[in-house]
Design brief:
Strand 2 and strand 3 form a beta hairpin. A four-stranded mixed β-sheet has the order 1-3-2-4, with helices on one face. It is globular, with a radius of gyration of 16 Å. By secondary structure, it is α+β, with helices and mostly antiparallel strands. The longest helix has 18 residues. It has one domain: Arc Repressor Mutant, subunit A (Orthogonal Bundle), CATH 1.10.10.2910. It is built from eight helices and four strands, in the order ααβββαβααααα. Bound molecules: zinc ion. Zinc ion binds next to helix 3, strand 4 and helix 4.
Length: 167
């Protein structure tokens, strides 16, 4: 599941000629045929993906910070890439508890978002070659602190580059 998300993200980054962070997630969405629509959703709603009659749209909460909006777009694209969002289906993202069969899909969509916004090889270059610290990583990747640390821990980069902890 995550290896397939990684390959899909790498292929998209390559075709968009994106070689370093920040990843232009709107460009990736456009390549996949999606229009991004900022929308005044209620605070708890992050966004939604809609595919209907050949129209592909991702709505993002216009009141949310850019870092969260970028993650939401990546997450919604993850539903599409993993085949969750079928025609005449809309995925609506609430910060509520998902039913079991949805929970796995949410994890897969999150996994794709992480692979797209924080590619393993981009991070490894920045850490091994450039030795950039936490605040520089946040500024460069335009992701939330929480998303960054989940990614660093998942890839075991936090333990490999222990200087990050003290930055
Ligand atoms: Zn979702």
């Amino acid at each position: 599941m995550s290896s397939s998300n990684r390959i899909q993200a790498q292929t998209l980054l390559k075709s968009a000629r994106i070689l370093e962070a920040p990843v232009d997630v709107e460009k990736i969405a456009k390549i996949l045929g999606f229009t991004i629509i900022p929308f005044p959703f209620p605070e708890k709603r992050k966004g939604m993906v809609l595919i209907e009659n050949g129209v592909k749209a991702i709505g993002v909460n216009e009141k949310h910070p850019v870092t969260l909006q970028r993650y939401t777009i990546g997450h919604e694209l993850g539903h599409f890439i993993n085949g969750h969002a079928h025609f005449e289906n809309a995925f609506i993202e609430d910060e509520t508890i998902f039913y079991d069969h949805h929970f796995q899909q949410e994890r897969e969509a999150d996994s794709f978002a992480a692979e797209l916004l924080m590619p393993k090889d981009f991070l490894e270059n920045d850490l091994a070659l450039n030795r950039i610290d936490e605040s520089q990583l946040l500024g460069k990747y335009l992701v939330s602190k929480q998303a960054l640390w989940v990614r660093l821990n998942t890839l075991r980069l936090a333990e490999k580059y222990s200087y990050l902890r003290s930055s």
